[in-house]
Amino acid sequence: AEKVKLAVYYNSKNPEFRRFMVAQLYPTSNKIPNILDISMVPFGDGKEIKAKSGFQYYCTNGAEECLENLIQACAVATENNPEILTSFVGCLSYYDGSVDKIAKYCSNQIKDYEKVEYCLKNTQGLEVMHYMAKKTRGLQPKMSHSPWITVNGEHSEFIQQQAMENLLQLVCSKYKGTLPYAC
Fold first, then answer.
1. Residue range 45-57, pLDDT digits in tens
2. What confidence tens digit (pLDDT) does each residue in 93-151 have?
3. Which of 173, 177, 136, 170 is nearest to 40 (CA)?
4. What domains sit in the chain, N to C, each tagged with a CATH number?
5. Which among 35, 130, 153, 169 is placed 20 to 30 Å from 5, CA to CA?
6. Transmembrane region positions (predicted)?
């Protein structure tokens, strides 16, 4: 059976997103990795402005959020293992404080963290950010709060509420194959 496609659109410093990440997405992705296909889209309600040198980004929760969005976007672009990715983003979401320090601390979750650092320091980072911004702008219906959750491409207040309260149950209910033990 096909995996359940879960997409999460968010800005990284949003407290609702952070709570969802730590309490729902991280534990759920560990319990049922084989039936879940996760897309993380860190951009949220940020602004992308065309500038001479490409694009500039402004974030609701300031420059630290822009940096954390970028770190997460680079991690999404360079890490293919969803469990490692959710551990890393879960770690970032769990701690408050300087994004640089926390990212250093959490970087041990990712084997090739050099790839993430390379992405941050090069045009790849801006390309990845632009992709996240475009993906977020393309949402139908438009994103009106963070996190914005879609299951198999669908968003509704009901899906959103279920995901925030019991993601495991929601994913298990949408899966068409033989349910894993954790369900």
1. 999 999 887 889 9
2. 999 999 999 999 999 999 999 999 999 999 999 999 999 999 999 999 999 999 999 99
3. 136
4. 4-174 (3.40.30.10)
5. 130
6. none
